[in-house]
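Internal QA ticket QA-208
Title: Verify multi-chain structure generation after dependency bump
Assignee: T.L.

Test input:
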Amino acid sequence: MMARGPMGGRAGGPFREPSGPPQTTRHPGETLRQLVGQLRPEVPRITLAAVLASTGIALTVIAPRIIGNATDVIFNGVVGKGLPAGMTKAQVIAGLRLRGRGQLSQLLSGMNVTPGKGIDFSELGVILGVVALLYLLGAAFSWMQGYLMAGVAQRTVFAMRRDVEAKLRRLPLQYFDSHPHGDLLSRVTNDIDNVTTALQQGLSQLLTSVLTIVGVLGMMLWISPLLALISLVTVPLSIGVTLAIARRAQKQFAAQWEWTGTVNAHVEQTHTGHALVQVYGRTASTIDDFDRKNQKLYAASFRAQFLSGTMQPAMQLLANLNYVAIAVIGGYRVVSGTMTLGDIQAFIQYSRQFTMPITQIASQMNLLQSGLASAERVFEFLAAKEEAPDALGSSPAGPTQGHVTLEHVEFRYVADIPLINDFSLDVLPGQTVAIVGPTGAGKTTIVNLLMRFYQINSGHILVDGVDINLLPRERLRSMFGMVLQDTWLFAGSIRENIAYARDGATTEDVVEAGKAAYVDQFVRTLPDGYDTVLDEDASNISSGQQQLITIARAFLAKPAILILDEATSNVDTRTEVLIQEAMARLRSGRTSFVIAHRLSTIRNADFIVVMDAGRIVEVGSHTELLERRGFYYDLYSSQFSPTSEYAVADPIPQ
Amino acid sequence: MTLIRVLLSHLRPYWRQVSAVVALITCQTILGLYLPNLTADIINNGVAKGDIPYIWRTGGVMLGVTLVQGIIAIIAVYWASRTSMGVGRDLRGSVFARVLHLSSREMNTFGTPSLITRNTNDVQQIQLFLQMALTVIVGAPIMMIGGIIMALREDVSLSVLLVVVVPLMAALILAMLYVAVPLFQKMQVKIDRINQVLREQITGIRVIRAFVRSDYEEHRFETANADLTATALRVNRIFVLAMPALMGVMNLSSVAVLWFGGHLVDSGSMPIGNLTAFLAYILQILLSVLMAVMMVILVPRAEASAERIEEVVRLQPSIADPAHAIVPAHRKGIVEFRDVTFGFPRGEQPVLRDLSFTLQPGETTAIIGGTGAGKTTLLHLIPRFFDATAGALFIDGVDVRERSLESLWADIGFVPQQSYLFSGTVATNLRFAAEGATDDDLWNTLEVAQARDFVVSMPGGLDAPIDQGGTNVSGGQRQRLAIARALLKQPLIYLFDDCFSALDATTDARLRAALLERTRGNTVVIVAQRVSTILRADRIIVLDGGRIVGLGTHEQLLASCSPYQEIVASQLGEAAA
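Actual output:
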């Protein structure tokens, strides 16, 4: 995942790297409404933050105006010192007029000058003291505002993450099976991160930027409506220039992104297929191909960088144009005595402050758009249909016997394709059901139904005579133990992974289960024993050992009914023997449903359920099915017969 | 510093461009520093004196300067972008070519994912850093020095302020970074953790529900979530302090300039307009300090990338062509192992020990043994992915180390355990082995590999698209295409590394029969997991712990070799008994 955080989104201007394919929001209004809904509990704090922000900005925005007064005090002092002491201002002006210095006299008339007196430092001191105080208070308010909003953003995201995780627990299994895991993951991780960034940076800055624009514009209008108007003319001009450049640059950034993808894919597959490229003598041609793509990437990135780099000089030119215009018009006004020098300086400061928040909003917009698009994907996920709530039935008291009955069960994943039709089977406690069939025959379907991962369409499944639809799901599932081929171990110690099967399992329980599942032997050779921490893919132990751990887990759960998958992959011969023995031991005395791959299991099973293309095609015992000479007979004779040329160790291909 | 070394060596072809960029940015900065002078003049001589024509004139000059400055800036960005993107391209190319010439040993020590990251992300980091350096960093010191000179020119005594303000600003930023950066890294770790928990919940959904551990998962997630939120809050609360603090320092310095400057103006030692100019300079200096310090945080990241890149670029492949390659007199494909021992560097025990045997053309040899017995390693010695640590391997009487790699590889058709296809089409993947092959050749080979039927049914046939890695076809189809690719090469020696595992029994049988026909005159080596697939091999080598514990036909081994009997018993179970 890309590092993104407080500094991530701020990189604006010419250095913005392509941050991914452009994202769009299908229902921006609706998504925005939902996002605002998420913010509801924070309304008091947001209000307080808005008040703080307005106050802080007001203070900061007034300051240059007061600094203008300070400039005036200095200017008055300078001019005053140059005039003869003892005369009044009126006398000086009259004298100047007489000498034909009309312009200067006009200038003086607009000033607060005491001839002969220098700068009034006590007045200057007071003014600057006030300014310093305003700046300090402004900074303090703006910090408090940011502090509050950080809390708002983080708490909101905290709640969103919690909702998403809670949602994961309420979705039916079908949702997980029918949505690519990658997409799901990206919604609950990347998209949430994206929303965080948008909330954390976007919200607070947008607020500040808008308020600053309003404040600055107000001050400009107050000082001089005419000059304010002139400055406003440059706004659409600079927006136009920004858009014109941005549109072109964006196209190049998209091209850069695309070529980056192509080049990276080329690197990835060449390095992955390294040995092939060498042995097949393709080194030279692969490098040629790479160079061509690399050159395209270079061309696109160069154009993107260059185009976005022209933005800054263009804006600079516009800003200076504005400056000259203000200076010229302002010059006239000062001369005519309608404005003071301090006013002009204050105005110039404001006009500089005016463009900054505008460009900031432009750069925040990208961030907010992408945040909104992500929020939509998160809300979509949160709106997905949930599992039906548990029925309020009474669960049978006492230990489970393991008597499983299927009565006229019908099931289909897709409406028009019935997979299981009127299927009935009575499995007594301790009996074994073997499920066989070629790869992709849908052998896990029965597992899905027994555990109520999926809902049957009609008929009944009973455990110890109770319809499983009337049992709370958790109660039902705690009767079962499950060992799947797809070992699921989480990042944590081996002890934690085994203890996962039962709440409050003691160390003795774990070791006992470990011994039963042949885990104990290899765990003792590890330096940290049961406390050895597995990494995320459990790649620090072999896949055979991973399977043994999942068997230990099932031992610890002490279930009445077992669901086992006998298939093993990438397991060496000796570990395979251990796995088979552990599974056999686990099965003894328990009702078992086994996705069977071993001849002995199949032969000794009480029932064999034969599946093909998602359907149950035959049910019966080994001898019955052989006599029937149907699908099972073919399967058996082509794959299990020792006389076949390619007698098969793992009879059902994986 | 590695970063500087890497940049300097790759910037050499661009020295003209780099000099131009430095010169242009210097000009641009000097002009930029001249601007406050002009604004001061406009105030001093124009606005204050009411001289409108002067304002027009100077304003014109000012716009002219801005225009020239803008043009210079654009030219500078042009060359800076050309240079940094060019260096990025060159680096990417040289890392790529270097990796392609590495041998398997180096591939293993670095790991493919790491090499991919070095070739892509790390290069991008350097490229980004260089772009920043050539546009922003180059300007910062010039701006700072120029700003200080100009400030001194305006007034020496007022410039004393800089001695206070600049260090204060720098210290403030560094302090904030000092606190925030480690926190920020911590936050990243916690984001990774929460994502990991979510990933586990999604992939393990069946297990979680089967074992009724939703409450436990909820608790695990809550902890991670609260933990992340706490850290994120701390980081962000520090970051929101940054802007007000920095703006505060800047604003207060301008107040100080007015106060002290006022005294200077009053004593007549400084014209009032210079006050404005001085204010502009001090802001410019502080901005360049800000930029320079922000750049400093980019350096460690770029440095790390540079080190990772240099590690690869400097690497000498451990396996390379000999100085004087020997061409075998007759190329037949006779492979001879003479007392071959092989161990990985730093490995405690050798993977293979004292192997001696000869493989003849027209024979099929199977290698079987448990996981970690050394089957794949043995196979990899033949195309010199690794060199024997002791003993020697001869092909057609010549030690493989004395042949050129190109000629050696030309004799070998190799199908790895993980059959891998490249993105493109069925045809481009097959022609990977033989560029000039006709469509008929392709179809014939597909027929042998039992792949004709499914290729025909794919949309586009030979031109059907194949995704990177071959993920859009099934495992069995991928294996058959990889086999077809090897067949099309028509080499002397075939190496099949357990590449029939995803085929169903019938296809497997048909493929083996067709292969036998096609490879009649060749040396064929097959690594296998399943005994059933090698019953008819001319010779079976049984490996255990890196040693040959059995060598012979199935019948011979079944009669005499106990490790082989063990394997057969465990795999065929009662069926074979």
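Spot checks passed. Chain B has a mean pLDDT of 86.
Status: verified.
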